[in-house]
TrEMBL record:
This is Outer membrane protein insertion porin family. InterPro entries: Bac_surfAg_D15, BamA/TamA_POTRA, D15-like. Residues 73-149, 159-207, 281-348 form the POTRA domain. It comes from Hydrogenobacter hydrogenophilus. Residues 593-847 form the Bacterial surface antigen (D15) domain. Its main location: membrane.
Length: 863
């Protein structure tokens, strides 16, 4: 009987609804939103929470009790003995992750799946022990103990009942000595072995996988360093692959490999049991047009074996195949003598086909192709109901076939207009977009897509009961049929936004969750999408899922927001040595969601033989409201430039206000001490910015817009103003072609130190020039820059990119505009969700500099 750990949650002072659960539930706000009026709807929401097994309701007098049974949650997995496989690999293959509800997983299933995983990696003697511990609060601790045993390598194949030599069969099914013995691959070889016997004429044969024989090597087994079969004599290029495979054995399994070459290793032999049956000799006498292999496949004997019925069917199949190729006088007979079958084929003369003004050797496939091409052409012209066939008239004396295409094209089907009866401006815009492409050839996909767009709009705007009726009027002319659709849209009541139910958060405060949640009086799908985007961009959560539920009585939409918080802390430390900086100590400490209010902190510290560097970064994407964000950094940095080095120490801070989801305005403040070219400069800076960044998809964007305007004023040891403008667009064109361009420029006052002046050259801008080479030696007060790229797909995921850069630096705007530096280049890349991993080759177009190619390796798009 289920033991319930009862936790009573008083909803309000006079509440009569109580929640009881078998285990404590993850943090949620259910007790704050449920009441006597809505508990039936909220219960339906709870039933859809991942990890909830069952929910029931019980009334006792005027009180209502909601019983929630949740599955236990996987809290921790401890694996011991996994010397050859990473823990993450094991977890992934088992389908386990921390925080998952444990539903139908047993110790036995984990053991068997893990054994299979290891046996498929060559550890055929693996032993696995699994134990569970379930705590009182419903968390599972999983302990896995693994004894991997020795790695097995393939020693060859054993073929019981075979009359062929083992080497020939192993070569046929690619059993290679020296390869890691993988059980599942051995099992799959049975299909290749069956095909081999069929091809050899054993049409009644049967093959099955019996098991694996395991042995110790009786001497040095050098095949482990050079896994290869006899086919290497015909394909010597396999030597390279064999050497790489041997190196892989040595690298991944050094102990097992050394044991094998020293005579103490382990080898495995897959055992196949073969019932060969009779070997049939299928002969086709008189065949010229078709080859023996083609006729054997046409006959169907390989699939059905040999008997009186299959032979008769084979005869019919062969005759039919010949007639389709114009041998209308073909005659086929057969005779079975013991294990030999003889088909006697009298092909006769191939007929010549006459179709309109053309003649060609008769071929039914070619005629069908011509007919299909004619019909497709008519359908493209609007005759979408066109249908056809062909008739055949044979002149057996002349051996001629007269073909006539019989086509009924019907009338052109034209979608003339789509009318909307209503006053909703957004709906009217949808209809205008469709009417812009009309009149057009009638295509049901146009109507189907319009119907989906109407439904989508109604759902997105909260008209959950919205529907539409269509009326179709038809007009006919001599050659055409015209369709006019009239839509009457009934939006129905607009649903209000109901309760937001948060479930699964750990440390985040309810207020912080509210900041990220976009709410309005009425439900809209756009607000839900914006909410998901806010949760993800907060960098606090590893998973977010929002489901919606309709309360048709109250005309409301409730939202279930299930959250999985990311790991809060990360720590990394490394110690190294290089000849320039001597001993190097690097540390990183990251802590997310401080105090549960969304503050993220990163601390980096680097100590070398020459300097000490650090940075403490604090950020909050939702500062006390959904509109504000904060970035603050306390730092001591070191930068190497082409003709100077810069050491900066101080603090900087930016506060932004979101005008829209993608656009922010804000202020920047900083206090820094800077050292460059032997001069120390103390600066106070304050400024304003406008920032817009749009991506059509947060994880795999195809369209990106980025615009940035900054204006700052520096005071202190120097006084000057700085202004920069940058815009970047990535625009998808047709057929996978992408266009991207960037335009940027800037100005800085005369008193600006070298590290605040402008340089160009390198990966981010003028790629045909070396890093910061444009603007030497002291930089410029103005710069202009432009970039244009075209990305072409080759074969997924490969792309090629053609690009051109142009720009210059000067102490006057005219200098920065006149005589710009230019370069062109090309890239080869691999598409990824964040942009291509690309290799760039750039070439400067300036006459008076050395014509040197510049090479770059980069990831993504540079704004």
């Amino acid at each position: 009987m289920l033991f319930f750990l009862i936790v009573l949650f008083p909803i309000m002072a006079l509440s009569k609804v109580f929640i009881i659960s078998n285990y404590p539930l993850p943090k949620n706000n259910i007790e704050k939103v449920i009441n006597e009026d809505n508990y039936l709807d909220i219960v339906e929401v709870i039933k859809h929470i991942e990890g909830i097994k069952d929910v029931s309701i019980k009334k006792e007098g005027e009180d209502t009790y909601i019983y929630i049974e949740r599955y236990p949650i996987l809290k921790k997995v401890i694996i011991k003995g996994n010397l050859s496989l990473w823990k993450d690999t094991i977890m992934s293959r088992l389908g386990l992750y921390k925080g998952m509800p444990v539903k139908d997983i047993s110790k036995e299933s984990i053991q068997e799946r893990l054994k299979k995983l290891y046996r498929d990696e060559g550890f055929l003697d693996v032993k696995v022990a699994v134990t569970f511990e379930t705590s009182q609060d419903g968390y599972i601790y999983l302990y896995i103990s693994i004894e991997e045993g020795d790695i097995y390598f393939t020693g060859g194949g054993i073929y019981e009942g075979a009359t062929f030599k083992s080497d020939k069969l192993s070569r046929a099914i690619q059993i290679v000595k020296g390869r890691v013995a993988k059980e599942s691959q051995f099992e799959e070889k049975v299909f290749a072995l069956q095909d081999f016997y069929m091809d050899e004429g054993y049409l009644d044969s049967f093959v099955y996988f019996k098991g694996i024989r395991k042995e110790r090597t009786k001497g040095p087994f050098f095949s482990v360093l050079f896994p290869v079969d006899d086919s290497i004599e015909k394909k010597p290029t396999r030597i390279v692959g064999s050497l790489l495979e041997g190196f892989s054995n040595l690298f991944r399994h050094p102990v097992g490999t050394f044991k094998a070459i020293s005579g103490r290793g382990h080898i495995a032999y897959p055992i196949f049991n073969i019932i060969e049956g009779n070997r049939y000799s299928i002969n086709f006498e008189g065949a010229v047009f078709f080859s023996h292999e083609q006729l054997l496949n046409i006959s169907g004997l390989k699939e059905k074996g040999v008997d009186i019925f299959s032979l008769e069917e084979a005869k019919e199949n062969i005759e039919s195949a010949y007639r389709k190729k114009g041998f209308f006088d073909v005659n086929v007979s057969y005779k079975a003598m013991g294990n030999s079958v003889f088909f006697y084929i009298k092909e006769g003369q191939r007929y010549t086909a006459f179709l309109e003004d053309t003649e060609f050797p008769y071929d039914e496939d070619k005629i069908s192709s011509i007919l299909e091409e004619r019909l497709n052409r008519l359908k493209e012209e609007g005759y979408t109901l066109a249908e056809g066939s062909f008739s055949l008239n044979l002149d057996k004396e002349k051996k001629e076939a007269y073909v006539k295409l019989v086509i009924n094209k019907g009338k052109r089907q034209i979608l003339r207009k789509i009318l909307y009866q209503g006053d909703d401006k957004k709906l009217a815009k949808i209809f205008r977009q469709y009417n812009d492409i009309l009149p057009a050839i009638y295509d049901t996909h146009i109507i189907e897509k319009l119907n989906l767009d109407i439904k989508k709009y109604l759902q997105e705007m909260g008209y959950m009961e919205g529907d539409f009726d269509t009326n179709v009027s038809i007009d006919e002319s001599v050659d055409s049929v015209y369709y006019t659709y009239t839509y009457t849209v009934s939006k129905g009541p607009r649903y209000r936004l109901g309760q937001d139910i948060y479930y699964g958060y750990l440390h985040t405060s309810p207020k912080e969750l509210a900041y990220m949640t976009v709410k309005d009086e009425f439900y809209s799908e756009k607000d839900t999408d914006r909410t998901i985007n806010n949760f993800i961009s907060s960098d606090l959560f590893s998973g977010v899922k929002i489901d919606t539920f309709l309360d048709r009585g109250a005309k409301k939409v409730h939202r279930l927001i299930q959250l999985a918080e990311d790991k809060r802390g990360i720590y990394d430390i490394s110690l190294g040595y290089n000849t320039q900086e001597k001993v190097v100590l690097d540390t990183f400490l990251g802590w997310k969601n401080l105090l549960g209010i969304g503050l993220n902190t990163n601390f980096r510290y680097r100590r070398t033989g020459k300097r000490e560097l650090y940075s403490l970064d604090i950020s909050d994407n939702f500062l006390f409201t959904r509109k504000l964000w904060l970035r603050t950094s306390l730092f001591n940095n070191y930068e190497e430039h082409l003709n100077y080095t810069l050491t900066s120490k101080g603090i900087s801070s930016s506060v932004g206000y979101r005008i829209t989801d993608n656009t922010s305005v804000g202020i920047t403040l900083s206090r820094t001490t800077n050292s460059a070219l032997g001069e120390v400069v103390d600066l106070y800076k304050y400024g304003v910015f406008l920032l817009r960044e749009y991506k059509d998809n947060l994880f795999s964007p195809k369209r990106v817009h980025y615009d940035s305007i900054t204006l700052s004023r520096a005071v202190g040891d120097r006084e000057y103003t700085k202004f920069e403008l940058s815009t970047f667009y990535l625009i998808p064109l047709r057929r996978g072609i992408n266009l991207s361009f960037k335009v940027a420029g800037g100005y800085v006052g005369k008193s600006a130190p070298v590290f605040d002046r402008f340089f160009l050259g390198g990966l981010r801008d003028l790629r045909g020039y070396s890093f910061e080479s444009v603007g030497q030696p002291s930089g410029g007060r103005y710069y202009t820059f432009g970039r244009l790229e075209l990305e072409f797909p080759i074969k997924s995921p490969l792309v090629v990119i053609a690009f051109a850069d142009v720009g210059n630096v000067g102490d006057k705007l005219s200098h920065a505009i006149r005589n710009p530096k230019k370069d062109v280049g090309a890239s080869v890349g691999i598409k990824t969700p964040v942009g291509p991993i690309r290799f760039d080759v750039a070439f400067p177009l300036e006459r008076d500099i050395p014509k040197r190619l510049r090479l770059y390796l980069s990831v993504g798009y540079y704004y």
